[in-house]
Design a protein that fits this description.
The complex is a heterodimer. Chain A is α+β, with helices and mostly antiparallel strands. Chain A contains 5 helices and 9 strands; from the N terminus they run αβαββαββαββαββ. In chain A, the strands form 2 sheets. In chain A, strands 5, 6, 7, 8 and 9 form a 5-stranded antiparallel sheet that branches. In chain A, strands 2-3-1-4 form a 4-stranded antiparallel sheet, covered by helices on one side. The N terminus of chain A is likely disordered. By secondary structure, chain B is an alpha/beta fold. In chain B, helix 1 packs parallel to helix 7, helix 3 packs across helix 18 and helix 11 packs parallel to helix 14. The chains are: A alpha+beta, B alpha/beta.
């Protein structure tokens, strides 16, 4: 069965890789209202994989209507491919509504847990940073503290930079969720 | 009522008369309900064959093709047919049995996650979670398969659910909040498109399979003949515009005519209708139709500006849009003779580069001649199905299709072995028509088992094998682009097609002499029952003209 021989020239590995790399543009937060049915998340994740899009973060949860779920995806893409992705998402029967949330027109939040090495010398300083970022200490042991931080992703990333020098044991993030600003529903 | 009996009621209320499939353990209840249900079931020999038969049925009739298969291997055998239906937008409903719910996820006997496996290649799939959902799911499947951009829908039903006693009431309508295809087309956009067409100096109408799916062929002809708009069709669109015709440029794309491809290259306005700017059409995308603006009419919004940015996009059903576009176009004042120069240029190409080949001066049968002979004996009046490869392209070039749903082949997926089972489906849909499967010797063997189905079910298809002893298109590429290093393309002299045909209970014939061919074909068509005619053609003939993959239309060779 015919593939795509075109020419028998040997292809340069670097060129091939350059071809495969997805164009980057602004970060997009896509908010999807989907039917709460089995397999819906697989369909959406599969679509992204198939069309060569990388999902930066993904958060799924119930909504005020128990037949519906909310999926919030953040993706990196130039305007043209994002348009193609939202169109393809619209074709999924279980996807009811899609919104590409503009950063200015929406509020986005993420929760992160940071487990940091801390001894008696450094603990006070770590706690001070946590306070500046309005973080909360949720667990303490002799050699570590765990801090909960909520905010937009840039705040989470800023906190990570501050805390990393103390010895970041691990970081867990939920991925962003977002709503549109103002009275109208997302 | 048993859920499976409810399924039969649903199928009948959807207007289903024919089903293709194979029974097995997990769909035993379905086949029990089928017994005496008043539907004709065609018992195929391989699920891939059953799937392509359902496609052939759908393509010939415009109705939804229906196919049953059991769980595990039965369902996985369908995958190629499902993917094929997806790429060619063929309305089909596949109903598969699944293992009992207590066995789900345990690697039970004949268990395969068929909804998972097929997810990337279906329009939609429904996993039954509760037996009472079954009737609604069946109706949803038909609704989704046939509306909007048509496509395959899979319904997977666990065996125990299918035996459940459920309350059954006929379903009147389905409600799918996440599925509301746009059909009408924006009036303002239609007006803009009409204006652009009326002002264009070098327009081309580029029509695809979507026109046939929308049953909009007559409307296409109306639009084009309102004026002298040049028309070309894709492989899937052949027949949407009747050939031959003064305004007909022939097929476009990789093996299209030079006139069609050059016209696209020089056009100032291209109006795409139900076509998707596939790579076989555009060649090198960055050099495709560099001077053109594009009107793109498609029912699937995701096709608009996917490959080529549309200047005037119109989302909707061609059947609804084309009459409005024609009316708007007719109402506009158009400059007298504005297309004269354009036609002069096109006629120049048509005269300089007609389709042609060097005929043999011996008894040798040239493959192109074989198509012409087929056209002669059928009067161009047959449903022709094909496999995939050189023979398919020659048929697309040399057989003038007069109307829609006469040319059935696998365009998007390029599935070898499609021809025989789809011919079988087409003949079931249109028993009064002559159905010819133009097969390749490399392709036909991939689903040859369906000869047994045709013979036992008395589905009288005629199979004309274009036998060049090679996987011909691959051989052509190896010859042209890979220094003629013929790697695994020769078929040897096996099988003996006449004996094979006879072993299946059909009539086998052979022809190797040009002077006998028309007569032999006529005999084949007149012989009752299934006939296989093995035609020995020039082994190393190349299919021209062609745009080498990744190159532009003006770089056509041959």
């Amino acid at each position: 069965m015919m593939g795509e021989p075109a020419t028998k020239d040997v292809l340069n590995l670097e060129d091939l890789r350059a071809l495969g790399s997805v164009t980057t543009g602004r970060k997009h937060v896509l908010s999807l209202l989907v039917e709460n049915k089995p397999g819906v998340l697989t369909r959406i994740a599969g679509l992204f994989a198939r069309r060569g899009f990388n999902i930066d973060s993904l958060a799924v949860g119930p909504t005020d209507d128990d037949t519906m779920s909310r999926i919030t995806l953040t993706v990196d893409g130039a305007a043209h491919p994002i348009d193609q992705v939202t169109k393809q998402l619209h074709k999924l029967i279980n996807v009811i509504k899609i919104r590409d949330l503009e950063p200015d027109g929406s509020v986005a939040r993420e929760l992160a847990l940071f487990k940091v090495s801390a001894d008696s010398d450094s603990r006070a300083q770590i706690m001070e940073f946590a306070e500046i970022f309005r973080g909360r200490i949720v667990d303490v042991s002799k050699r570590s503290v765990t801090i909960e931080v909520t905010g937009a992703d840039d705040k989470i990333e800023a906190f990570e930079r501050m805390i990393r020098p103390f010895g970041l044991v691990e970081m867990v993030r939920t991925g962003e969720i977002a709503v549109a600003r103002g009275r109208s529903a997302t | 009522m048993r859920a499976v009996d409810a399924i039969m009621e649903c199928l009948k209320s959807e207007g289903v008369e024919h089903v293709f499939g194979i029974p097995g353990g997990a769909n035993l209840p379905t086949y029990d309900a089928l017994y005496g249900a008043g539907l004709r079931h065609v018992q195929c020999r391989h699920e891939q064959g059953a799937g392509h038969a359902a496609e052939g049925y759908a393509k010939a009739s415009g109705k939804v093709g229906v196919c049953f298969a059991t769980s595990g291997p039965g369902a996985t055998n369908l995958v190629t047919a499902i993917a094929d239906a997806n790429l060619d937008s063929v309305p089909c409903v596949f109903i598969t049995g699944q293992v009992r719910t207590e066995l789900l996820g345990t690697d039970g006997f004949q268990e395969a996650d068929v909804t998972g496996i097929t997810m990337p290649v279906v329009k939609h799939s429904l996993m039954i979670q509760d037996p009472i959902e079954i009737p609604e799911a069946i109706h949803e499947a038909f609704h989704i398969a046939r509306t909007g951009r048509p496509g395959p829908v899979l319904v997977d039903i666990p065996q125990d659910f299918s035996r459940a006693d459920i309350p059954y009431e006929p379903v009147i309508s389905v409600s799918l909040p996440g599925y509301q295809p746009t059909t009408e087309g924006n009036t303002k956009q239609i007006r803009l498109a009409a204006k652009a067409l009326a002002n264009a100096r070098r327009p081309v109408i580029y029509a695809g399979g979507g026109v046939i799916n929308a049953e909009a062929s007559k409307d296409l002809v109306e639009l084009c003949t309102s004026d002298e708009l040049p028309v070309t069709c894709t492989l899937m669109g052949l027949g949407a515009f009747p050939a031959p015709h003064d305004q007909w440029l022939g097929m476009l794309g990789m093996h299209g005519t030079r006139a069609a491809n050059y016209a696209m290259d020089e056009a100032d306005l291209i109006c795409a209708i139900g076509a998707r700017f596939d790579d076989r059409i555009t060649g090198k995308l960055s050099e495709f139709a560099p001077r053109a603006k594009f009107i793109h009419i498609d029912v699937d919004p995701a096709e608009i500006s996917k490959n080529v940015p549309a200047h005037i996009p119109i989302v909707g059903d061609a059947k609804q849009i084309l009459p409005k576009l024609t009316a708007e176009y007719r109402a506009l004042e158009r400059e007298e003779g504005r297309l004269d120069g354009w036609w002069e240029r096109i006629h120049g190409w048509q005269e300089k580069y007609p389709l042609g080949y060097e005929d043999s001066d011996t008894s040798e049968i040239k493959p192109q001649y074989m198509i012409q002979a087929m056209y002669e004996v059928t009067g161009g009046d047959a449903i022709v199905t094909s496999d995939v490869g050189q023979h398919q392209m020659w048929c697309a070039q040399y057989f003038d299709f007069k109307g829609p749903r006469r040319w059935i082949n696998s365009g998007g997926l390029g599935t070898m072995g499609f021809g025989l089972p789809s011919a079988m489906g087409a003949k079931v849909a249109k028993p009064e028509e002559t159905v010819v499967c133009l097969a390749g010797d490399g392709s036909v063997i991939m689903n040859i088992q369906e000869l047994a189905t045709c013979v036992t079910e008395k589905i009288d298809v005629k199979v004309f094998i274009m036998n060049n002893g090679y996987l011909g298109m691959v051989r052509q590429w190896q010859e042209l682009f890979w220094d003629k290093r013929y790697s695994s393309v020769a078929m040897g002299a096996s099988p003996d097609w006449v004996k094979l045909a006879e072993a299946f209970g059909s009539t086998g014939m052979r022809c190797a002499d040009k002077t006998d061919l028309v007569g032999q074909m006529r005999t084949a068509l007149e012989t009752p029952g299934v006939v296989v005619l093995d035609v020995a053609v020039t082994p190393e003939e190349n299919c021209y003209p062609m745009i080498p993959a990744g190159q532009a239309a003006r770089d056509m060779v041959g």
